[in-house]
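Q: What changes when D-ribose is included in the input?
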Amino acid sequence: MQKVVAVGADHAGFPLKEDLKAYLKEQGYEVRDVGTDSVGSVDYPDFAVRVAEAVASGEAPWGLLICGTGIGMAITANKVPGVRAACCADPFSARMARAHNDANILTMGGRVVGPGLAREIVKAWLESRFEGGRHARRTAKIEALEERVGRGGQRERSAPGGPGPARGEGHER
Ligand code: RB5
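A: The predicted holo structure follows.
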């Protein structure tokens, strides 16, 4: 079994990322660290997209992203088709994120969970398995939505004269 985890963090998640890298290595996982490398201020989307693309391309089966809350990382990662990122602050949610949602990226808040709890969350997520069955029917609907919104929907929104006012037509506040 391939045991590669792509990991990334912004400045608020950097200390926890470093701790979890050590934990993952102890557990026998190969870690691909996309940064950041310090507590200097950076923008979380820059790191979320690197991990999301590594997971979506199959380069890494799993991804771990940490920012202050885990929320910005999840919002960004979920923009990449094929990614199912779950922001978790407890082991039960992490287990369900895998078992029911087949989450391939876990996000956490370095300002929310301490290192001990974070290790428990990572362990619960990595050691759980997708249950398939009715849950596979549901994740297939997410994939169908990605197809519709990412392709046809995108074309509709960018078409000249499409629905909604264009920028500069008085709707900005
Ligand atoms: C950075 O201050 C913070 O906004 C970021 O780490 C994250 O929590 C965003 O979701």
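Observations recorded in class: The mean pLDDT is 90.
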